[in-house]
Design brief:
The chain is of the alpha+beta class and about 150 residues long. The chain has 3 helices and 6 strands. The chain starts with a strand and ends with a strand.
């Protein structure tokens, strides 16, 4: 595991606290009441990551710059097993295979997981597991629209 101190970006609905966990009960790296905060190492990474979830008439969103200071991040960038389209597998009734990686990371005491973008492996994302002890704070935000 590695320390990670720096800035990350997150796209949230207007009015949503960017320091709070994802609202969805399941995601690539969380399930069964677990918490996760999904971020990217770049604004472009945020736009790529959220593209699959954007729908017509979605609420307005903003992109938020966050500061983080974590001591135990598991770096799994470059691992293609984390890049599966988990939603299709989950829709068929099976657990998302990515959950095995996040469960193992959580069990090992990791505060988060770095991973490569599925559709743009040159971009990286960071999912954070706990909601405290990360020095996480919002610095600034801008309105965000798909394709911008």
């Amino acid at each position: 595991m590695i320390p990670f101190a720096g800035q990350v970006w997150r796209i949230v609905s207007l009015g949503q606290n960017p320091e709070e966990p994802a609202l969805a009960p399941e995601g690539r790296f969380h399930h069964s009441g677990q918490t996760a905060i999904y971020t990217s190492l770049s604004p472009e990474g945020c736009s790529v990551a959220i593209a699959r979830y954007i729908r017509v008439n979605d609420p307005a969103r903003e992109i938020v710059l966050l500061q983080i200071n974590a001591l135990r991040i598991l770096d799994m960038r470059g691992n293609p097993e984390l890049s599966v389209v988990w939603q299709d597998i989950r829709a068929a009734g099976a657990p998302a295979p990515t959950w095995a990686f996040s469960n193992a990371a959580r069990d090992a005491g990791a505060q988060g997981l770095l991973y490569s973008s599925r559709s743009r492996p040159d971009l990286s994302h960071l999912v954070l597991f706990p909601t405290e002890g990360l020095g996480l704070r919002a610095i600034s935000s801008l309105a965000w629209q798909p394709g911008k």
